[in-house]
Amino acid sequence: MKVILQADVKGHGKKGDLVEASDGYARNYLLPRKLAIEANASNLNTMKLQDEAKKQKLERERANAEATKKVLEGKTVSLAVKCGAAGRLFGAVTAAEAAEAISKATGVEVDKRKLSIDEPIKALGSYKLKVKLGFDVTAGVTLNVTEDRN
Questions:
Q1: What's the CA gap between 126 and 40, in Å, rounded?
Q2: Distance between CA atoms of 98 and 117, rounded to whole angstroms?
Q3: Residue 86: how many CB atoms within 10 A of its CB?
Q4: Which of 17, 27, 41, 95 is most solvent-facing, going by the fewest CB within 10 Å?
Q5: Nearest Cα to 131, choosing from 113, 149, 106, 148?
Q6: Residue 71 near residue 32, CB atoms below 8 Å
Q7: CA dihedral defined by 116, 88, 146, 148, rounded to 10 degrees?
Q8: How far, in Å, CA of 54 to CA of 74, rounded?
Q9: What's the whole-model pTM score?
């Protein structure tokens, strides 16, 4: 019996897969537990439409990531922080502070979890940061850490 899985089933497939299951297994286990639905014409058409909608959504999200990359790529953002003698900072610049500075400067909302900082920022200077936008799309941003004169 052909069924469309509604949840991941170990040994058979993932959610949304069209699989062949034995009649007894499908009728006595998969269907009563709502783990699968029978693969009739209506359900197959619904599955096909859902797959197309999912594909279009992924394409839109990828296009948004590419557009965001064009905005962020190569930008230089300044961040003023308090520091002591010889340009040493009191603490370090966190990903949250860097993401906030990038968001203010570019107008693009950047999540601190998507910001990749290679080494801790504990001194004044210029640092290369990577913003992970999803779909293997990353944008490079330069963060200039300067002294806060207040």
A1: 61
A2: 9
A3: 7
A4: 41
A5: 113
A6: no
A7: 120
A8: 32
A9: 0.72
Q: How many whole angstroms separate alpha carbon 51 and alpha carbon 36?
A: 16
Instruction: Tell me the pLDDT band of 53, cut-offs 50, 70 and 90.
Output: very high
71-126 tens-digit pLDDT: 999 999 999 999 888 888 888 999 999 999 999 999 999 999 999 999 999 999 99
Packing angle between helix 95-106 and helix 41-72, nearest 10 degrees? 80
Helices (H), the chain: 23-25, 41-72, 95-106
pLDDT at 88: 86
- The tally of CA atoms less than 13 A away on the side-chain side of residue 56 is 6
